[in-house]
Amino acid sequence: METQIINEQTVMIYFDNEISESTYQLVQSTVQYIKKQNHSEITEIIPSYRAILIYFDNKRIEGNELLENLELNRLQNESDARTRNKRIIQIPVLYGEEYGPDLAEVAEHNHLTKEEVKQIHTRQPYLIYMLGFMPGFPYLGGVDERLHTPRRS
Q: For strand 51-56 and strand 10-14, is the pairing parallel, antiparallel, or unpaired?
């Protein structure tokens, strides 16, 4: 774990430079650890795949002092996120035609039928690492490699 002062109102906590469930769990447990401390000068905590951005009121505390007060060296790797009940969200999916114009492209690229793509895609739950650039856009982990398709140019 590394920390960095980004500017006069934000600090960043970095974890392993990888997208993995173990790094995700560490990020989530650290967020819970920080929230439990209830630092009133923290205004927002934003987790990502491998880091946590913390906004704070710089009229009440400086970045270095905040990082010291967080006592991250006392953080235990026991994750509240691992032990609490995980929420499963059912998302209905429509494939093909106007609702899924990429279905044929994914099938062709991976030498699968459209039906095989649907079966592979819906056979397991996915971990939502974070919500992204658009409201409600989830970054999912665990997508079967047989469905990996390059981005469009």
A: antiparallel
Q: What is the distance between the alpha carbons of residues 25 and 22, in angstroms, rounded to a whole number?
A: 5
Q: What one-letter code names the amino acid at 42?
A: I
- The residue count of the chain comes to 153
Q: What is the tens place of the pLDDT at every residue in 67-125?
A: 999 999 887 644 444 445 578 888 888 887 888 788 999 999 999 999 999 999 999 88
pTM, to two decimals: 0.71
One-letter identity of residue 8: E
Query: Please, which contacts does 133-142 make with residues 24 or more away whose CB atoms are closer than 8 Å?
Result: 139/49, 141/19, 141/21, 141/24, 142/21
Q: With the C-alpha atoms ordered 87, 88, 92, 95, is the resulting torsion angle positive or negative? A: positive
Helical residues (DSSP H) of the chain, grouped into ranges? 21-37, 63-70, 80-83, 103-109, 114-122
Residues paired with residue 42 on neighbouring β-strands, in sequence order: 56
Can you tell me the distance from the alpha carbon of 94 to that of 51, in angstroms, rounded to the nearest whole number? 33
Q: What is the DSSP letter of 85?
A: P
Nearest to 129 by CA among 121, 141, 137: 141
